[in-house]
Amino acid sequence: MLDCTDRHARYFMRKLSRHAMLYTEMITANALIFGDRDRHLRFDKQEHPLALQLGGSEPEAMAQASEFAAEYGYDEININVGCPSDRVQSGSFGACLMAEPAIVAACVKAMRAAVDIPITVKTRIGIDEADTYTQLEEFVNQVSAAGVSTFIIHARKAWLKGLSPKENRDVPPLDYERVYQLKREHPELEIIINGGIKTIEECQQHLEQVDGVMLGREVYHNPWLLSEVDQAIYGHTSELQTREQAVASMQPYIEQQLANDTYLKHVSRHMIGLYHGRPGARHWRRTLSEKSCKEGADFEVLNEALSFVTREPQPIAVNT
Ligand SMILES: Cc1cc2nc3c(=O)[nH]c(=O)nc-3n(C[C@H](O)[C@H](O)[C@H](O)COP(=O)(O)O)c2cc1C
């Protein structure tokens, strides 16, 4: 998610779940070719498993960008065919590529020839008037024939003209059944559903129909939700029992980042939602937002913010 899932956010999310796949913000192929590649691509190895999301529509550029991604050690490359912003449309990529399956297929072929890591696609159920099941299926058929077996599908269409990107995440109605149908009729594909999913129970219901669930806004705004995922979805014990443990687990990373000229706010802004719905959440948020940007702000800001939130009981160790 642009401006959200940067490397600091992902490091924090990884503390909350060992197993969830994490995705970068969308980065354009040209930004990697002509821009500050290391700034865009570097990540901490603890972030694995990690996918790089690429935007672009030129096979050669997408292949070159994929090579960079593979060199940096990403586990997957995901092509963005879902973003409806004007900026992305003027670059002829994102959601408008749903109308150009042959171009996406050519990108996939070039990328697969360049790297061995899996290439996946994130898309919508349709764009503008091209929103029938048959049109979605035609897109998926052409792209899967080029070598994609995993599709992440945001279960609403996008209007390319007339709605802002934000409205395009809320206004077109969700149609989960459309995504279920795709899985039913293409059991050979891995289908991951996305859009409006807010609870673990909802994830579990979707998993009866499809292979995976992608959570966007809810996890970003209420990151503690992710701490339930390892146990409830993957059947592994969670490493963290309390939010306070999550904060403490970030201390070494934060200190290391501060020593490398990163400001506290760059990390702490992603932790603002940690106490979402808990007593003292407002004070937590306010302390982090107001004090993290001050000159010299360090981990003490988090300790101060913690003093406002109700302490959660620590797990009791029983000696038998
Ligand atoms: C601030 C913001 C930035 C986003 N950036 C991206 C992006 O870079 N790439 C992408 O595929 N989707 C992006 N999305 C869309 C989400 O990945 C997701 O598809 C959408 O929000 C619906 O899922 P949700 O209801 O779980 O949030 C973004 C969403 C938000 C709110």
Short description:
Helix content is 42%, strand content 12%. The chain has helices spanning 7-16, 29-34, 37-41, 59-72, 86-90, 101-114, 133-145, 176-185, 200-207, 217-221, 229-232, 243-249, 251-259, 264-268, 281-291, 300-306; strands at residues 22-28, 50-55, 76-81, 119-124, 150-154, 190-194, 212-214.
Which labels suit this protein?
single chain, 320 residues, alpha/beta, TIM Barrel, Four Helix Bundle (Hemerythrin (Met), subunit A), seven-stranded parallel β-sheet, 16 helices, 7 strands, 42% helix, 12% strand
Tell me the helix content: 40-55%
What's the shape?
globular
The CATH class of the largest domain is Alpha Beta
CATH homology-level superfamily of the largest domain: Aldolase class I
Number of helices: 16
Main pleated-sheet profile? 7 strands, parallel
Mean pLDDT: 96
Estimated structural class: alpha/beta
What compounds sit in this structure? flavin mononucleotide
Termini separation (Å)? 47 Å
